[in-house]
Every structure is written in C-alpha cells, then in structure tokens.
Design brief:
alpha/beta; 5-stranded mixed sheet; 16 strands; globular
Amino acid sequence: MAEKGKLKIQCFNGDDYIPVEGCRAIVTSREGTEKQIELRTDSSGLTETIELDAPSLENSQQPSDKSPYSLCDIIIKREGFQPFVVNGCQIFPVETAYQKCNLVESNQTRNSRAEIINIQPNRLVGDFPRKIPEEVDKPLPLPSSGVVLPKPVVPEYIVVHEGGPNSPGQNHRVLYKDYIKNVASSEIFSTWSYNTIAANVFCIISFTLNRIYTEWYRSKGKNFDITNSTAYDHAFSFGRNIYENISNIVDEVFSTYVRRIGRKQPLLTQYCDGKNVICPEWLSQWGSKFLGDEGRVPFDILTYYYGNNIELTTAEIVKGSPKSYPGYDLTRGSRGEPVRIIQEYLNRIARNYPLIPKVAVDGIYGARTAEQVKVFQGIFGLPKTGVVDYKTWYKISEIYVGVTKIAELN
C-alpha cells in the first residue's frame, strides 16, 4: 500500500435527513494486517474524516490487473437502532469516500437483525454482462398509457429494479441524484479527471432521463423506471459508498442532459468500457479517460463519440424542490426573495443541525448568511464557498424537504 485514501461516514434516521448523533462506527481495513478504527458521529451525524491505506494511483490510470481501490468494512452501532453493516466499502487513493448510513429504529420492526449492505465491485474490474445494443430513438408511449411528459423533467425519486427487467428482484426507491452518484461511483474511477467524470455523468443522466421520459419500462407494465443489469441499463449497488468529487459534479450538472439537435427526448447515451468491449458509436469509458487527460472538455469528449449534432440542455422542472433556482448565484450583497427563502430554509435545517447558525430572515445576504451557507456546505460535502450557486441551492432544498417532509404533503 503506497498511498492513502479518505473515508467519512454520515448516519441518518431512516430515509429522512435527520442526523443521528453518538453512533459508534467501527471501520476495519481488509488490507495488510487487519486494522480497526473506531469513530463517533457528531450532531450532524458525521464522523471525522480518516485516512486509510489505498493502492497506487497508477492502478486506476490505465487498465490493470491490480485493484484500483482497497476495501474496508463498517459496522454502525447505536442504542435504539438496528446494527448497520457495510461490506466492501471502496477506498481510492487521494479521493474521499462517503458512506451514507440510513439507520432503522429497533422499535420499528420485531426483528433486530442488522441491515447489511454488500457493495458490488466497480464495473471496470468486476464481471458484469455486456450492454445489449438498442435503437437510440425510442417511440413515446401513447397518451392512453398514462401521463406523457411534454418535455423531460428531473424526477425526485427513481425506482430501480435489481436484476434484468424480466427477472424477479427487489425494487429500490432512491432519490434521483443519489442514483446518479451511485451509478457514477459504480461505473468509473473517482481518480479520473473532472472532464472525464463530467462527460460520463452526462451520459448516465441522459440515459436515465431517456428511460423516464419514454416510460420505457412503465409502458411495458413494469413497476420500475430502470434496472441495475448492465445488459440493459447501469451498474447500481444499493447503499454503496460514493465519492465526494463525483458527488459535487453530479450536484453541479444533475439536470443537464445530451440530446440530438432538433430532438425532444434525451439521447440514449449507450457506452462500453473500451477495453473488454469496443463500441465505435458509443462512448468508451477508458477512451474518455484518456481524452480527459489530454484536456478535452466534457462536451468535446461527448461530440468525439456521439457526433457534432448534439447539444447539452437543462431540464426546466426539478421535482421535489419547493422553489426553483433563481437563475443567478446568491452572494454577499445579494438581496430579495431568493435570499429570504435560503435564510428560512437554513434556519429550519438548523433545528436538526445545530452547528448551522440561525440568522434573521431579512432578505439581505450579509456575513452571517454567508457563514450559515458555508457551515451547511461543510456538513454536506460541498465546497465551502459561502455562495449559493446552482448545486448549493438544490442541496439546501433537498435537505429542507428531507427534514420537513413537505414533499409528501404536495
């Protein structure tokens, strides 16, 4: 083990964003001599960030038989909650792995068995089925089949089916952004360049929104939106760790997708690894890595594979958010209703996250509001700029909805 990676853990009460303080987290590294580290969660449900042994960075920079990440196991214990176990959390060198733990109260079920998450290998090193090629242009469902969206919409949740579309398997209802972060962390390496990761994230988003917009599975009588079979869709490992840099990129671009110029539906951006499978008309994951290393920006990487008649467009509607982004960043000196909304949301979030200072709801973005935003960003893994940009606006909205449950009232 030549390098170090980082890990932080955050515990919540169920699927809400209510933090659980005082959890005992036992982290056991599988590498070298067995090593245990014990951590405790703070009032935000967070542990401190720790360093763990990781393989050489070179292992993830080109196809290799050597593992690009090390593994650790996590046990979460807290009175009043069932034990929570994560097997095979993946630690890359340099980057920060983030493990979210949704704890179940022990009085909610008669059975006190542990909740166990078994993380699948990354797709680039695991044994996964090859993607079955599909026609890119999908017919839209008939109006009689249900609601046909006039234009693509970013959903609040997505229902993921384990296994192929015709195989029995469990369905998971997952927040849309969490799904995209999970898939990106399962499909590519967090040690790749920003340009490469962003290009691959655009592909994951576009493919996913195509499935939803065309009601690909729903129109066939299925009760899910997408599967975790790589023969049909994306790799998805329920409950797995994600990576802070991938999370930030997804928060930045989660509503932006690829489409053919003149077309309405998101492009079905199929791709392959570029090593075991060669796909001339699709994005190659390893090929995109090397293009990113050359300094190609994400859109240039996409046009390299999908042609010049594509564009990036942003969905106008983001479901589950009480208010839409105002169209400009909020920073020191900003005034008006958007500032008032953020102050109100953060004051409410601060009831569950006492580290966040409360401020007067006056619509004036001063030093105290900037500090309030900065503390929030630190708790939820965003760059601590003190500026409410696109990703911070929607993260504040997401947490506000999670602690108030207002989405269920609409």
